[in-house]
Amino acid sequence: MVDRIGAFAVLAIAIGLFAIGIGVANLSSDPDGAATALQVAGAILFSAVAIIIAIWNFDAWQVRRERAMAAETSESEPAGSSAVAVPAMLGDVRLHSTVELALRSAAAQTAPRPLDTQVLFLTLMRADSSGQWYRLWLHTGGARRITARPAQDPTNYTAATWQGYPLTFATARSLDIAARLSRRYDIWPLTVGMLAIALIADPASGAVRALGPNADRRAILDVLQTDVLGVELTDLTLVLAAVLHETPAPPAEITHGSNPGVVQRIPVLQRRYPVLVACLGLIGVAAVVLGSVVG
Predict the structure, then answer these.
(1) What string of H, E and C letters represents the secondary structure of the chain?
(2) Distance between CA atoms of 34 and 50, rounded to whole angstroms?
(3) pLDDT of residue 148 exceeding 70
(4) 150 exposed, middle or buried (CB, 10 Å; 0-12, 13-18, 19+)?
(5) Which residues have a Cβ under 8 Å from the Cβ of 101 and sit 6 or more positions away?
(6) Are the CB atoms for 109 and 80 separated by under 8 Å?
(7) By C-alpha distance, which of 234, 174, 222, 175 is closest to 200?
(8) Residues 207/210/213/218 CA torsion (nearest 10 deg)
(9) What are phi and psi of 254, to 5 degrees?
(10) Minimal CA–CA distance to 72: which of 63, 83, 81, 80?
(11) Which end of the chain is more exposed for a tag (fewer CB within 10 A), N or C?
């Protein structure tokens, strides 16, 4: 379907350019021809819309091809491996045994897909028997509701690894944030509470959205400090803002399900206002027809 739309778009571009050429030739012989000018303007508008649709079709085809390649790679690679050379996380960081258990369990659960923040947060919650997680459920509606809410990370390609297991960009960033927080507050080994705080540091992560649209993030951070970590961290809000600034933000133009470098270049006009693009195309056609009738 996408390829067929692309073929029609290319044909429409050719027709539009042909109409523009004829119109310009007629204008050169009759500069005062209002009908011809209307035809040319309509043909230009129609051609511009066709070019936008052709670009959209090419990018949609490219994304589809890259997704297929990524799927084939995931099926051919064993669990815990990565097809792309990516950084390894927490290589020199001492982890609490529960954190290591949760990471390993969550990563094995999602492999060969990269581990996302929602799954890791839920696994931490289940693995930690000492934390008073029920206090968190008062704000989020319970563990089952957190599990039931579909909440993918902003990008879900393999951005990094932990002991060979693939991680999404948000998960890798959360691990980096957790290590930075542990260094700032000198809390070692890296604990469940510190990692849980890091997983919801970025409001755009899947873990935050899984907590629910009405969840009070500030109240949840307070619960994670007092009832999971077991200590109140000084100026946590300011420290989190500083640490988030230190760590790289996810690429804004990477599409879901794609590998790094697969950029979606769909024009903003087509991506945000598809109805407007269609209307502009119809206006262009109408202008050409009206110019022909009047002429």
Answers:
(1) CHHHHHHHHHHHHHHHHHHHHHHHHHHHHCCCCHHHHHHHHHHHHHHHHHHHHHHHHHHHHHHHHHHHHHHHHHHHCCCCCCCCCCCECCCCCCECHHHHHHHHHHHHHHCCCCECHHHHHHHHHHHCCCCCCHHHHHHHCCHHHHHHCCCCCCCCCCCEEECCEEECHHHHHHHHHHHHHHHHHCCCCECHHHHHHHHCCCCCCHHHHHCCCCCCHHHHHHHHHHHHHCCCCCCHHHHHHHHHHHCCCCCCCECCCCCCCCECCCCHHHHHCHHHHHHHHHHHHHHHHHHHHHC
(2) 24
(3) yes
(4) exposed
(5) 127
(6) no
(7) 174
(8) -40
(9) -85, 135
(10) 83
(11) N
Residue type, 150: P
Which CATH class, in words, describes the domain spanning 85-246?
A: mainly alpha
What is the pLDDT confidence band of residue 58, given thresholds at 50, 70 and 90?
low
Above pLDDT 90, what percent of the chain? 40
Backbone torsions φ then ψ of 142, nearest 5 degrees:
105, 160
Cα gap 46→109, rounded to integer Å: 51
Q: Token digits for 29?
A: 């012989």
Indicate the Cα dihedral angle 153, 170, 136, 139, nearest 10°: -50
pLDDT value, residue 112: 87
Nearest to 280 by CA among 41, 37, 36, 58: 41
Q: 254 - beta bridge partners? A: 263
Question: Cα separation of 126 and 133, whole Å?
Answer: 9
* 161 DSSP β-pair partners: 88, 166
- Type of residue at 202: D
Could you give the CA distance from residue 42 to residue 285 in angstroms, rounded to a whole number? 6
Is residue 280 pLDDT above 80, yes or no?
no
